[in-house]
Write a structure and sequence with these properties.
mainly alpha, 4 helices, about 60% helix, mitochondrion, mitochondrion nucleoid, transit peptide, Mitochondrial nucleoid factor 1, UQCC2
């Protein structure tokens, strides 16, 4: 199951753009760094709290696809 979570996070990292003008404070770069830290052993990493991992993925995925921007439209 950790392999599936790892692949989902990798796909999310691929989709998340990196803004070179925001070096040191770019969310995409920070996301890649945190995924690398959390999955040090790649697909073989043992996840301590799978529920929290799934919640974090869901939150980041909704941010990535502009879920909240489209849900709350400005008038």
């Amino acid at each position: 199951m950790a392999a599936l979570r790892y692949r989902r996070f990798l796909k999310l990292c691929e989709e998340w753009p990196i803004d070179e003008s925001r070096r040191g404070r770019d969310l995409g770069a920070m996301l890649r760094q945190r995924v690398a830290q959390a999955f040090k052993e790649g697909e073989n990493t043992q996840i301590q709290d799978p529920e929290a991992c799934d919640q974090m993925y869901g939150s980041l995925s909704r941010l990535s696809c502009n879920y909240y921007r489209e849900k709350v439209s400005c008038k």
